[in-house]
Design brief:
Layout (H helix, E strand, L loop, with lengths): L1 H25 L9 H18 L4 H15 L1 H9 L3 H20 L1 H4 L5 E2 L5 E2 L2 E2 L3 H23 L2 H11 L1 H6 L4 H27 L1 E2 L6 H14 L6 H16 L10 H19 L3 H4 L8
Antiparallel strand pairs: 1-4, 2-3
Helix pairs in contact: 1-7, 1-10, 1-11, 1-12, 2-3, 2-5, 2-10, 3-10, 4-5, 4-10, 8-10, 11-12, 11-13, 12-13
């Protein structure tokens, strides 16, 4: 039972990091992306490849994953500079499809549909995180660091610039904000930190394949942000906690057939999002209206 709870807790930390980073561009910058799972996957594959072929150093793998994800985020940032609203959502959906195809077909790097097996546990200053309890502590520390980075960014001048751009790009530009630079940097930061979550995931699971980075993952992350509260610091964490605990809670209901749990989860996610948009558009943490500041 303890091992099961530890597993849920580690996966919660990883998903909370992903929800936080998606909220950084979605809630604060107004950039709605359906490709966040791709940057998560890039970080995971980068860590897996480095750990299996070069070094299992935690810091090296995380830094490389963050850097590669941030650089590749330009494929998302460039469309964001030219289009907005539903057009950008469509552009990010295209990037998601392209990313999944690459993950599936670039067999020499990603292992194709079979994935990558036997990823070693990470080492930090000579210590190997073989114990699940130690890995949970690591995941909590990384989550805490990401929360701290996000808080510093959104509560400073950069965060105010993001929210000004979200509310009105034209007005922000009139007041001297460098709209393109701020949007590009925000996407790079979010993608880089999503890459860190991917690094944690690869090290923890020890096996990755494309099924973890499909469109459904991006939609689930968006649901976490919307249900918890967009434009809030702790809303995505609340959303991640709720949606991560829901599958475990459903298994304890004796009248639900196990083969239908996946479909029931999807129905609950969708229903929750519809009801929140109707009665609490700011999410569970944001209340009835979006938070005006961090």
């Amino acid at each position: 039972m303890i091992a099961y709870l530890q597993n849920i807790a580690v996966l919660f930390c990883i998903n909370a990091i992903l929800a936080l980073t998606l909220n950084f561009i979605m809630g604060y910058a107004g950039i709605f992306s359906l490709a966040h799972a791709i940057f998560f996957g890039v970080g995971a594959y980068a860590t897996a490849y480095i750990a299996m072929h070069a070094s299992d150093s935690l810091l090296l793998c995380m830094a490389a994953s963050a850097a590669i994800s941030a650089i590749l985020s330009m494929a998302l940032a460039l469309p964001a500079l030219r289009v907005r609203g539903e057009y950008f959502v469509a552009a990010s959906l295209g990037l998601q499809v392209i990313g999944v195809t690459i993950f599936s077909e670039w067999k020499s790097i990603t292992g194709g549909l079979g994935g990558m097996i036997g990823i070693p546990r990470p080492k930090l200053w000579g210590y190997t995180f073989n114990d699940d309890t130690a890995f949970l502590m690591l995941a909590l520390v990384v989550l805490g660091i990401v929360v701290g980075i996000t808080a510093l960014l959104v509560r400073g001048s950069f965060g105010r610039s993001l929210m000004a751009i979200r509310d009105s790009e034209s007005a922000a530009q009139t007041y001297g904000k460098h709209v393109n630079a701020v949007k590009t940097l925000s996407v790079a930061v979010a993608a880089g930190l999503a890459g860190v979550a991917g690094s944690l995931y690869a090290f923890y699971i020890s096996f990755i394949n494309v099924e973890s980075f499909v469109l459904e993952t991006s939609i689930l992350l968006m649901a976490m942000v919307i249900i918890g509260g967009t434009g809030t610091l702790f809303g995505p964490i609340v959303g991640a906690a709720l949606l991560m605990s829901l599958p475990a809670a459903l298994t304890y209901l004796p009248f639900l057939p196990p083969t239908e749990l996946g479909s029931i989860q999807q129905i609950i996610y969708g229903l929750a999002m519809v009801l929140l948009m109707m009665f609490r558009p700011g999410g569970l943490v944001g209340g009835r209206s979006k938070e005006k500041s961090a």
